[in-house]
Amino acid sequence: MIVSKENIQALIPQGPPFVMIDTLVQSGEASTSASLVVRADNIFVEEGLFREAGIVEHIAQTAAARSGYEMQQCNAPLRTGYIGAVKNLQIFSLPQIGDELVTEIKIENRIFDITMISGQTHSNGKLVASCEMKIFINKLNNTVS
């Protein structure tokens, strides 16, 4: 684990109750992993299940944590990112309260301020969801503190 739950908000622009990652598990040159334990009080939990929007946000926040970690490593200010597109989203199952999600994102391409990622989310050894995302990073006077 690189960054614990107590310190994760230093890497992402989201705040409670919209934080969808607990820990940054690893971050390398081409991939990053983050985890989340689904809790009953999560805003995306309905009828004991973590809904699709929460899974997509968990994948996006894994990418945000990667960006924040990279900025932190070079003492640069954090930047806000925006999901530009979600493509080929597949939800195979909805996690339950108490399940731990582990998402790995891979950087597929970077062009200027646009990063293309692919993401896979697993829980209990099973693939829960996968997708591709296009993420825009705002580099103009929009730092997160």
SSE diagram, text form:
Layout lengths: L22 E5 L3 E7 L7 E2 L2 E2 L1 H22 L4 E2 L1 E11 L8 E12 L2 E10 L2 E12 L5 E2 L1
Antiparallel strand pairs: 1-2, 2-7, 3-4, 5-10, 6-9, 7-8, 8-9
Structure description:
The chain is globular, with a radius of gyration of 14 Å. It is α+β, with helices and mostly antiparallel strands and 145 residues long. The chain starts with 22 loop residues before the first strand and ends with a strand. Helices cover 15% and strands 45% of the residues. It has 1 helix and 10 strands.
Shape: globular
The ordered string of helix (H) and strand (E) elements is: EEEEHEEEEEE
Oligomer: single chain
Q: Do you know the CATH architecture?
A: Roll
Strand order of the largest sheet: 1-2-7-8-9-6
Overall pLDDT level: 92
Number of strands: 10
Question: Remind me, CATH topology?
Answer: Thiol Ester Dehydrase, Chain A
Superfamily (CATH H level) name: Hotdog Thioesterase
Q: Which stretches of 5+ consecutive residues score pLDDT under 50?
A: 141-145
Number of helices: 1
Helix content: 10-25%
Biggest beta-sheet profile: 6 strands, antiparallel
Structural class: alpha+beta
Note the beta-strand portion.
Answer: 35-45%
Overall CATH class: Alpha Beta
End-to-end CA span: 23 Å
Total discrete domains:
1
CA radius of gyration: 14 Å
